[in-house]
Amino acid sequence: MNSYFKPVTRRKFLKTGIAGGTIIATYPVWKLFSFSAPPRDFYVNPAVNLSKETLEKLIEIALQRGGEFAEIYIEYSVNNQISLEENKIYGAGRGVDMGVGIRVLHGEKTGYAHCDDLSFEKLKQTAEVASFIAKEKNIEAPEGLKHSKIPSYYMVNVSPDSIVPQEKTKLLWKANAIAREYDKRINQVNVGFADTNKKIIIANSEGKWVEDIQTISRLVVGISAIEGNRRSRGYAYKGGTLGYEHYDEKLAEKLAKDAGRMAIAMLPAEDAPAGEYPIVMAKGNCGTFFHEAIGHSLESDGIRKKTSCFWDKKGQIIASEITSLADDGTVPGARGTINVDDEGVPSQKTILIENGVCTNFLYDRLNAKLMNAQLTGNGRRQSYQHFPIPRMTNTYLMPGNDDPEDILKSVKKGIYISRIGGGNVTWVTGRFVFSVPEGYLIEDGKITKPLKGIQLMGSGPEVLKNIVMVGPDLEIWGGGTCGKSGQSKPVSDGNPTLKVSKITIGGAKV
Ligand SMILES: [Zn+2]
Q1: Which of 252, 271, 285, 487 could disulfide-link to 419, CB 3.0 to 4.6 Å?
Q2: Residue 423 Cα, ligand 1 centroid: separation in angstroms?
Q3: How many domains does the chain have?
Q4: Which residues constitute the domain of residue 300?
Q5: What is the pLDDT of residue 8?
Q6: Is the pLDDT of residue 185 over 70?
Q7: What's the 425 CA to ligand 1 centre distance in angstroms?
Q8: CA distances from 131 to 52, 113, 191, 273, 490 (A)
Q9: 266, 286, 312 — which closes off a domain?
Q10: Are 255 and 307 found together in one domain?
Q11: Are residues 220 and 310 in the same domain?
Q12: pTM of this structure
């Protein structure tokens, strides 16, 4: 990474919260199937545009010792971030990265090599290293490359990379001022804006040659409030595969007020009761639960290796019959949205659970090949330095028919989860613990007191069977950054209002 501006560490920046914003799952039809064009003003280093002849030559070299499949992945990416803390611009960073990853597949084996020098000599060496896993002589000639066009699901007109930092700081200052005005008990405000702009080119031995420009942006406001010895936190954000035209000072003001509302609402929170209770999850804010506690267990690597609790469950009932779960990389503007995955496979909507039955898993090329399954467009990698693995995109519980008001009214005593926080999940068993940054007591069908220290405990497979009501009001949120096998990837998730008949709450009050 070459940086100018004062760098901020990733960890520091992410501290302000995860990214995102609400995206209602209605599709702006005008945007679908427009062919992908680079967003305005995103400068791409022309060195990444290797010629057809160079790409074909590299594929040939990669397959010189055999192997069933070879692929070239080229990336040029620019990351920008700027943050405000304690009434000052705390850090600003810009990183540019460029490189090529070359992969050869041979049975269960993967040969992978990468380099950040795009001279032919270095690329040739890289292809040779990747080729070493294969040793067979029956070599099939690779297909000639054919350029494929892909539809675009991004909502990007103006690249955030074309906006100077001074312009972006106006959003930060606005949010900071509004949040501090919101209530005198607010003692800390952190605001951050970040964007990633990436051009990828993928060419493979099956003749596929595709390119995409992927832009992800977010504005995050995090707030702390204090009153006597009580402390609370609030946050709000908007983000997705969105261009800079989606951000202005009005939005910064709205996010500051939303974060302020949450922090002040949670100040008088009492200790949560411990025990088993029915819970209601608010629309849009609890999708992380389905991503973490269910979605990871439906990724095909764990299925193939039998390390997932669902490895032998395809075609079987694993949830209540009102439960359906999807992963959909085509939701316009959502944070996990991709036109193609990092293996050049078009993005799609995959139904994982339909009316309680486990119907499909999420595949990358290697696992699809070894399991004799159809590709689903879920082969994703963090960068050219990583080989693809099966990953989610936008994962959500699909809408049902229960009136959200009836859902709440049906609970005599229970817990209302406004949003799910961080968690810990064992994918082998699906056992989880999640914190709840905003939750309330439900008494006689009404939301009453705010609660602190709520811990949701249980197992994903158990919760799936206890989903007893699902509303029609699906919202897909910004989500955040998912980590798996040392690779980070932007994802999103969502849910309609729903009721789970019982979950164990670990709270301070017995
Ligand atoms: Zn994850």
Answers
A1: 285
A2: 10
A3: 2
A4: 270-506
A5: 32
A6: yes
A7: 9
A8: 20, 9, 47, 59, 30
A9: 266
A10: no
A11: no
A12: 0.91
279 shares its domain with 416? yes
Shared-domain flag, residues 256 and 296: no
CB within 8 Å of 277: residues ≥ 6 apart: 413, 414, 415, 502, 503, 505
Question: Could you report the per-residue pLDDT of 23-50, keeping only the tens digit for each?
Answer: 333 333 333 444 456 677 899 999 999 9
Ligand 1 centre to CA of 69 (Å) is 28
**Same domain membership, residue 488 and residue 394:** yes
Residues 123-160 have pLDDT tens digits of 999 999 999 988 876 567 888 999 988 999 999 999 99
Q: Clarify whether residues 299 and 202 are in a common domain.
A: no
Last residue of a domain, one of 243, 266, 289: 266
Q: Six-digit token pair at 296?
A: 């990871």
Q: How far is the CA of 18 from the centre of ligand 1 (A)?
A: 13
Q: Of 350, 394, 385, 359, nearest to 487 (Cα)?
A: 385
Distance 484 CA to ligand 1 centre (A): 7
Residue with the two structure tokens 């908007």: 238
CATH label of the domain that carries residue 53: 3.30.2290.10
| Judgement on whether residues 199 and 311 belong to the same structural domain of the protein | no
User: pLDDT at position 37, please?
Assistant: 63
CA of 382 relative to ligand 1 center, distance in Å: 13
With a CB cutoff of 8 Å and minimum separation 6, the contacts of 107 are: 68
Asked whether the predicted pLDDT for residue 320 surpasses 70, the reply is: yes
CA of 480 from ligand 1 middle (Å) equals: 9
Overall average pLDDT of the 340-362 stretch: 98
DSSP SS3 for 3:
strand
Judge whether 71 and 202 are in contact, CB under 8 Å.
Answer: yes
Residue 65 and residue 210 share a domain: yes
Tell me how far apart the alpha carbons of residues 362 and 326 are, in angstroms, rounded to a whole number: 10
**Gap between the Cα atoms of 198 and 216, Å rounded:** 9
Q: How far is the CA of 295 from the centre of ligand 1 (A)?
A: 8
- Burial class of residue 149, CB neighbours in 10 A (0-12, 13-18, 19+): exposed
State pLDDT tens for residues 424-458. Answer: 888 888 899 999 999 999 999 999 999 999 999 99
